[in-house]
Amino acid sequence: MPIDAQKYCVEVRMLDGGAIRMRAIRGDDQERLHAHFRGLSEKSVYFRFMGIRRDLSAQDLKRLTELDFKNHVGLAATMTENGRERFIGVGRYICGDDPNRAEVAFAILDEFHGRGIGTLLLEHLSLIADANGVAEFEADVMGENRQMLEVFAHSGFESERSLESGVVHLRSSTRKMLKKSFRNST
């Protein structure tokens, strides 16, 4: 079934039963994405960007919100608070030279860690990737980022190699992840 990734929007439930929305990142999300980044702890920023990063530039925000939804797909996990939409998690995949493979990455607000948001983002990105012909996801994760390594391990990723810098390279087929997620949801 074809998926219009630019209009992707579904209601999902976190592990604690709380309802959130999973939707495509849009060009008008720069302010929400910036607020999300500023809401991350230094440790979460370090894990996501593999280094210290103080802020996102206007150019960064444009690049991270104006997506083609073929080679660069981004989803936001959102909640509505006081009538305003808030990003609580962001996930994306970006294809490199090989359009059949993409690097996947996530950033979840610390107060929402452990509630299944990373896994939900990964499942929905896998669905879109599979529909777009992306057969494999890969990720580089810092070895000390145990929570993200667990998310990937439970989603069927396998450690391909560990680099001297303490970064673990992981891979999984998108089909394998989809089969695993549907098997676990029944």
Present the secondary structure layout.
Layout: E1 9-13, E2 19-24, H1 30-39, H2 42-49, H3 58-65, E3 72-81, E4 84-95, E5 101-108, H4 117-131, E6 136-142, H5 146-154, E7 158-162, E8 167-173, H6 174-184
Parallel strand pairs: 5-6
Antiparallel strand pairs: 1-2, 2-3, 3-4, 4-5, 6-8, 7-8
Helix pairs in contact: 1-3, 4-6
Describe this entry's structure for a reader.
The chain has 186 residues and is of the alpha+beta class. 33% of the residues lie in helices and 32% in strands. Strand 7 and strand 8 form a beta hairpin. It starts with 8 loop residues before the first strand and ends with a helix.
Major sheet: 8 strands, mixed
> Using DSSP, what is the number of strands?
8
Helix content: 25-40%
Low-confidence stretches: 182-186
Order of helices and strands: EEHHHEEEHEHEEH
Number of contiguous helices:
6
Instruction: Name the structural class.
Output: alpha+beta
Measured between the Cα atoms of the first and last residue, the distance is 20 Å
Compute the CA-based radius of gyration: 15 Å
* Coarse shape: globular
Strand order of the largest sheet: 1-2-3-4-5-6-8-7
Task: Give a short synopsis of this structure.
By secondary structure, the chain is α+β, with helices and mostly antiparallel strands. Helices cover 33% and strands 32% of the residues.
List its salient traits.
186 residues, alpha+beta, 8-stranded mixed β-sheet, 6 helices, 8 strands
